[in-house]
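Consider a typical record:
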Amino acid sequence: MTPWLFPLLLLLLVGPPAVRPAPPTCYSRMLGLSREITGDFQSLQATEPSEPCVRYLPRLFLDIHNYCVLAKLRDFVASPQCWKVAQVDILKDKVRKLYTIMNSFCRRDLVFLSDDCSALEYPMPATTVLPERQG
């Protein structure tokens, strides 16, 4: 056996060195957190109907590309409803974190594509895939 064959076999058996994924960008962090908040808000509405205060919370259907999202986040954190419901406190902490990220750390990375405040009152429709053209 040649001397170089053993290290090559060992490398093949062990596998390639682990590659670390790139750290999340500001944009990916904002997008992920906004989706998480929207999902948590929807599940809160579904699981806490017995708490009347949940009904009166500002709606949280977030689109980080809409300029009105900053005001929506501020309104949600400032709302006095549900101050004793633990799930709402957790959600408000996440909203506060997203607002801080958007307004401080990632301010330069933001690109607002609209300022339609009413669009944030309802869930975004699912993206549909257009059929491929045949021809």
